[in-house]
């Protein structure tokens, strides 16, 4: 598959209702992104940040990302995470992922599809997820969302549309 | 097809006749609120949609506890000045954004309000479609004046009966969270004949806490109580168009809450969903810290009830009681009314207004092994400091009474003295 919205990666699997404080603790908000990214899952999975590799996919259960508006996606992107896949997302967390240019897809039953360490492929545009010979069809991301992701996030999009100066793309 | 309250507001803001659950719409935003944290990685836009539909409130980290936060202040001031944003609430006339929004009637019935902070659903108390959208999207709304929403199904809560003395909005919410759990990707709509007994401060507590069951929007009708509040804060009846649900609108669920039957509730550490119980059922714990504050429960009425309970009493030895007014206005009112003196006399530490201890950033961080009872918004592991601290959650009345007892207690046992005196 060469489709640009088809993403394949090794998976890390976390549970239900993993909240934003577990991924971006309050004290890390005092740090710049590269340092703050060292604290993702600090209490839930200590040292995970040393194990995750660029291109990996984070898989979660229900109600993923309940909590704050702090942009966890910026930290995930810094760590090289290629996509977030969850049984169910908190809507603010999902918006933050998209607006920070991190592909995300809701895949009910994804934890039955894949175990940690296995490879998962998701297609945001056509709406499916596959692991080995198992595949499930899900709702695709709407074109409006794919447009934001294609730009690399909302801020680069605003640069392209002439609202922000070019240096705005960096954030 | 009949619409729910939120569907009506979103239809109007999107310029559509009808919208329903499942639709994705582009909505005009009536008010967009920026907070201090926004200015940490700030890039000044080349142009913005409308300074009149923009407000800036410094709240999370004021006065600045770090150089990083301090560096945001001048950026915010320069931006407000250069772009003619008059609704700029700098340190000294600041407060937690959701309190400042209420005090200045920035949220109005039938309108759409966005803000960086996740508790923006608070403004649903004023019949406003309000939600947190994250820092990048706030810049998007600042620039374009609009954003998109996918309309979620709505759960309706029918309130019946009357709120008893000593039972507040926090208890109503904890009952809802404890009974029905998460409402992820759902809107909450409140109504019913019992609503008249729920004052605006308690409605705002309920709407604020909707974020804790992962809801999208949480809205109340603009009834007489709401309209009176808005008029007192500068928005007359001609300045907005309320949205009532249509008879026959489709709901994902309709749930009845009998206010008369409620007792004070406590949420156990970790989350509120399926984890909150009537106080008579909660285990006894020795408390290290008690906290009254935040956008949910740092309002003037929270300080009033805390002062009523603490008058002539003393915070238990070994307990820290921290009280953080939700705004500079609340602080000044509470000072004039004598609440702050009463609280300090009892042994409470009264801080300046900020989001502070609620998000474990400054002004009351918890250490490992400590137990906290908080009236603030969130009880996630690690939320207020160490991941090895435990955070229980209750109303301001329960927190004040428990600070005296040194363990969670029913505040009605102490309020009775006041009411029989």
Kindly describe this structure.
The complex is a heterodimer of chains A (171) and B (421). Chain A has 171 residues and is of the alpha/beta class. Chain A has a single domain (6-165), classed as Alpha-Beta Barrel (Aconitase, domain 4). Chain A is 27% helix and 19% strand. Chain A contains eight helices and seven strands. The radius of gyration of chain A is 15 Å and the shape is globular. The model of chain A has no long low-confidence stretch (mean pLDDT 95). In chain B, the strands form five sheets. Chain B has a five-stranded parallel sheet, covered by helices on one side. The longest helix of chain B has 16 residues, at 67-82. The termini of chain B are far apart. In chain B, 60% of the residues are buried. The chains are: A alpha/beta (171), B alpha/beta (421). The interface between A and B is large, with 43 and 49 residues.
* Extended strand count of chain B: 18
Count of separate DSSP helical elements of chain A: 8
* N-to-C span of chain B: 55 Å
CATH architecture of chain A: Alpha-Beta Barrel
| Major beta-sheet overview of chain A | 7 strands, mixed
Query: In CATH terms, what is the fold-level topology of chain A?
Result: Aconitase, domain 4
The biggest beta sheet of chain B is recorded as: 5 strands, parallel
In N-to-C order, the SSE pattern of chain A is: EHHHEHEHEHEEEHH
Report the mean per-residue pLDDT of chain A as an integer: 95
CATH superfamily of chain A: Aconitase, domain 4
Count of separate structural domains of chain B:
2
Please mark out the parts of chain A with pLDDT under 50 across 5 or more consecutive residues, or reply none: none
Structural class of chain B: alpha/beta
Question: Which CATH architecture of the largest domain in chain B is right?
Answer: 2-Layer Sandwich
Number of helices of chain B: 13
């Amino acid at each position: 598959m060469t489709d640009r919205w088809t993403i394949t990666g090794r998976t890390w699997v976390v549970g239900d209702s993993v909240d934003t404080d577990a991924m971006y603790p309050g004290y890390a908000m005092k740090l710049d992104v590269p340092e703050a990214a060292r604290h993702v899952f600090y209490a839930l999975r200590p040292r995970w940040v040393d194990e995750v590799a660029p291109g990996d996919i984070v898989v979660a259960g229900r109600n993923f990302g309940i909590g704050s508006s702090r942009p966890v996606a910026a930290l995930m992107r810094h760590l090289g995470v290629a996509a977030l896949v969850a049984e169910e997302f908190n809507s603010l967390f999902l918006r933050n992922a998209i607006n920070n240019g991190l592909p995300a897809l809701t895949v009910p039953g994804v934890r039955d599809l894949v175990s940690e360490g296995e490879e998962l492929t998701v297609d945001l545009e056509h709406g499916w997820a596959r692991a080995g010979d198992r595949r499930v069809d899900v709702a695709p991301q709407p074109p409006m969302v794919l447009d934001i992701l294609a730009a690399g996030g909302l801020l680069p999009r605003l640069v392209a549309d002439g609202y922000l100066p070019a240096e705005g793309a960096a954030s | 097809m009949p619409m729910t309250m939120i569907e009506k507001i979103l239809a109007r803001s999107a310029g559509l006749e009808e919208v329903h659950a499942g639709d994705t719409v582009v909505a005009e935003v009536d008010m967009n609120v920026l907070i201090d944290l926004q200015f940490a990685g700030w890039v000044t836009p080349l142009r913005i949609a409308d300074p009149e539909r923009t407000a800036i409130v410094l709240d999370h980290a004021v006065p600045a506890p770090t150089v990083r936060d301090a560096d945001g202040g001048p950026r915010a001031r320069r931006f407000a000045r250069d772009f003619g944003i008059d609704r700029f609430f700098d340190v000294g006339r600041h407060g937690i954004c959701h309190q400042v929004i209420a005090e200045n009637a920035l949220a109005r019935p039938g309108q759409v309000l966005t803000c960086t902070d996740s508790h923006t659903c608070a403004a649903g108390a004023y019949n406003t479609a309000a939600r947190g959208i994250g820092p990048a999207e706030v810049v998007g709304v600042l620039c374009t004046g609009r954003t998109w929403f996918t309309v979620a199904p709505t759960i309706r809560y029918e309130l019946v009966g009357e709120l008893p003395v000593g039972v507040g909005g926090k208890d109503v919410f904890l009952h809802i969270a404890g009974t029905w759990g998460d409402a992820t990707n759902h809107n909450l709509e409140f109504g019913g004949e019992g609503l008249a007994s729920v004052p605006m401060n308690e409605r705002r507590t309920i709407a604020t806490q909707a974020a804790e069951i992962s809801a999208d929007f949480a809205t109340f009708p603009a009834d007489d109580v709401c309209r009176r509040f808005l008029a007192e804060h500068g928005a007359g009846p001609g300045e907005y168009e309320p949205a009532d649900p249509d008879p026959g609108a489709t709901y994902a669920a309709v749930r009845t809450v009998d206010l008369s039957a409620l007792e004070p509730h406590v949420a156990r550490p970790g989350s509120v969903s399926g984890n909150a119980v009537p106080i008579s059922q909660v285990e006894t714990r020795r408390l290290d810290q008690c906290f009254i504050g935040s956008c949910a429960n740092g309002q003037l009425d929270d300080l009033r009830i805390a002062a009523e309970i603490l008058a002539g009493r003393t915070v238990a030895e070994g307990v820290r009681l921290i009280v953080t007014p939700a705004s500079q206005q609340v602080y000044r009112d509470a000072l004039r009314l004598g609440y702050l003196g009463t609280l300090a006399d009892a042994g409470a530490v009264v801080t300046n207004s900020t989001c502070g201890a609620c998000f474990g950033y400054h002004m009351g961080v918890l250490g490992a092994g400590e137990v906290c009872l908080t009236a603030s918004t969130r009880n996630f592991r690690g939320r207020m400091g160490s991941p090895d601290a435990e955070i229980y959650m209750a109303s301001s009345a329960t927190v004040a009474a428990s600070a005296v007892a040194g363990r969670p207690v029913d505040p009605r046992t102490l309020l009775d003295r006041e009411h029989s005196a």
